Amino acid sequence: MFYGSFGPDDQALLRKMMEEFPRMFGRCFFGDNNILVGKNLSFFDEPRFAEALARQATNDQEQSLGMRLNTLVWAFDNALHLEGDIVECGVWRGFSFGFLTDYFDFAAVDKRLWRYDTFEGIPPEYDSEGHDTPELREEGLYERVVERFKAFPNVRPVRGLLPASLEGQSPDKIALLHLDLNSSRGEIETLEVLFDRVVPGGMIVFDDYGWAMYSAQHHAEKAWAAQRGYRILEMPSGQGLLIKR
Length: 245
Hints:
- This protein is globular.
- The chain has one domain: Vaccinia Virus protein VP39 (Rossmann fold, 3-Layer(aba) Sandwich).
- It is built from eight helices and nine strands.
- By secondary structure, it is an alpha/beta fold.
C-alpha cells in the first residue's frame, strides 16, 4: 500500500520500490513517514480494522495512519479491562477516535470517552513552538465533531482550553489518556492535572513524541517522565507510550 503527500518524482521512485520490494522482502508499507519491508502488518488483514478504516478515512493522509491506529487499538483494548474512562486531549476533526469508537462499537461499552479541544486552534500563549495552523481553526469544526459522534451517548466533547477545561468536566479515574495538543506547555500542564488519575496499568499515548518537528514536546515529556521514574517508549509510528505502574 502507498499513501503520502510526496512530489511526482518521489511518488514514481516509491512506486518502483513498491514493485520491487515485495518480491525481495515480502510485505511492504509506505506511509506516515515510514517505509517498512518484510513485516507482518497483520492488523491490515483484520476485517474489522480494514472496514472501520474504510468507513472513517476520508483522504490519503488518514488512510496512511495505520501504524498509529494499531497502537491505539492495542491501548484502547487494554483500557477496556481497567477501571476508569478514556480521555482524548486534542481532537481536531476526530478521525483517530472516530476510527476507535467504530472499531469497538463504543456505544455498547460501559465507559465514557472525554474529548477536549479548543476547536479554535492553539492559543498564542501555548504556541511557543509555532504549530498552530489555519486548518486547526476550521469554521464549524466543533459542530462537525459533535455530529460525527452523535451515535455515541457515552462520548463527552468538552470545548475549551486545557487544562482549565478539565475543572468539573473530567473523570476521577483514567484507563487511557491520549495527548495530541501540539504544545509542550499544554501537554505538560495537562499531565500535571491528570497523571495521578491514571489507574495502575493505565496507558498514556503521546501522539507527537517521536516526531522531529515536535522535539520540544519530546524533550519536555521525557524530562517530566524521568522525574517520576518513568521512561517513555518512542515508537516508529511517531508515538510515545507510557504504562502507569
